[in-house]
Specification:
Chain lengths: 115, 110
């Protein structure tokens, strides 16, 4: 089992460029999430998808868009990158059915630098 | 709103016990979690506790929950250099969403 796979692992962009971070999970989870991690601030939720076909804003959605392509894949797009979006991005998935603990499974992260 | 707070840094000597503390604000949390992040990696669930429990022990790990004070702690017995990592406290709330603390960096000195 690969779990949660993110690509790319590293990316450097210039201000104003666009890019898409890809995420796929092979655990048949209903829910998928995009977080960003900044020093001392923990993880902040950007967007999430509770189930295939739905997406919702999290705590810090401005400057981002998402697509839940199918049950496996959830992508994060930066349309016009800004230096404030320099961060480490994590994709996660979970099975939110009532019989489990709601544990999140994380990818290894994508480190993005915007110059 | 929800808020989860942790101290930023903890340094201990190998073989000592480590205690990482966390405070949270959502009294309706169903589960509280401890995640571990090693350098260059994603977060992995270390342990969790259901909100109607006040203690959970799992080998070297002991989780204590004080619901009255909304305080959660993680004790690592016989801390090893391999325990050096960032530890995140998280609480679940409405809709099974998780809110994370800022993380505590544990440094274990040989």
């Amino acid at each position: 089992n690969a779990g949660v796979t993110q690509t790319p692992k590293f990316q450097v962009l210039k201000t104003g460029q666009s890019m898409t971070l890809q995420c796929a999970q092979d655990m048949n989870h209903n829910s998928m999430y995009w977080y960003r991690q900044d020093p001392g601030m923990g993880l902040r939720l950007i967007y999430y998808s509770a189930s295939e076909g739905t997406t919702d804003k999290g705590e810090v959605p401005n400057g981002y868009n998402v697509s839940r392509l199918n049950k496996r894949e959830f992508s994060l797009r930066l349309e016009s990158a800004a230096p404030s979006q320099t961060s480490v991005y994590f994709c996660a998935s979970s099975d939110r059915s009532g019989k489990n603990t709601g544990e999140l499974f994380f990818g290894e992260g994508s480190r993005l630098t915007v110059l | 709103g929800e808020d989860v707070e942790q101290s930023l840094f903890l340094s201990v000597r190998e073989g000592d016990s480590s205690v990482i503390n966390c405070t949270y604000t959502d009294s309706s949390s169903t589960y509280l979690y401890w995640y571990k992040q090693e350098p260059g990696a994603g977060l992995q669930l270390l342990t969790y506790i259901f909100s109607n429990m006040d203690m959970k022990q799992d080998q070297r790990l002991t989780v204590l929950l004080n619901k009255k004070d909304k305080h959660l702690s993680l004790r690592i017995a016989d801390t090893q250099t391999g325990d050096s990592a960032i530890y995140f406290c998280a609480e679940s709330h409405a809709g099974n969403m998780l809110t994370f603390g800022g993380g505590t960096r544990l440094m274990v000195k040989p």
